[in-house]
Amino acid sequence: MHFLEPVTLSGRLVTLEPLSSDHCAALEDAVRDGELWKLWYTSVPRPEDMAAEIERRLALMEAGSMLPFATRRVSDGRIIGMTTYMNVDAANRRVEIGSTWNATSAQGTGTNPESKLLLLRHAFETLDCIAVEFRTHWMNRQSRAAIERLGAKQDGVLRSHQLMPDGSLRDTVVYSLIASEWHMVRNGLDQRLRRR
């Protein structure tokens, strides 16, 4: 048994479902909403690459290093994106939440903060994680701002950390939340979501 096992996480705005190949067509539609793959500082799959991306994530799940989810909006049942637990370090009870994207029309609606609340609650309260990481491209200011609004602290910047598909080098900003901060972060997220 792996540290992470498939689980469905349900909230008021979204349900995070274990990713499967059955989600492919709906995810192709979701990624077309805003043509997210055109953002040079992200690694969002093109519609024609979605099946391969799902297979890649499922293979990493089988290896025990990732637990991928499809994000379903509760109000209309529509699949709006993907998110994952990744870079799993079971021995040290650490995970990263990442490889997240949401359709443009879903951005700013509360679905992303609730997704993070569900993932963080499961990580800290069920998996007993010591820390949860977030990583993003230095140039992805929208993602950095969202991570900081969660209450995560910046640990540092890994310069020239990854080669991007266009050949540029990514500076990766690393953030984390630790278990002792979870109560405060949970209260802040609950308060934000109550206002929606």
Automatic annotation (TrEMBL):
<protein>
    <submittedName>
        <fullName>GNAT family N-acetyltransferase</fullName>
        <ecNumber>2.3.-.-</ecNumber>
    </submittedName>
</protein>
<feature type="domain" description="N-acetyltransferase">
    <location>
        <begin position="14"/>
        <end position="153"/>
    </location>
</feature>
<dbReference type="InterPro" id="IPR016181">
    <property type="entry name" value="Acyl_CoA_acyltransferase"/>
</dbReference>
<keyword id="KW-0012">Acyltransferase</keyword>
<dbReference type="GO" id="GO:0016747">
    <property type="term" value="F:acyltransferase activity, transferring groups other than amino-acyl groups"/>
</dbReference>
<dbReference type="Pfam" id="PF13302">
    <property type="entry name" value="Acetyltransf_3"/>
</dbReference>
<keyword id="KW-0808">Transferase</keyword>
<dbReference type="InterPro" id="IPR000182">
    <property type="entry name" value="GNAT_dom"/>
</dbReference>
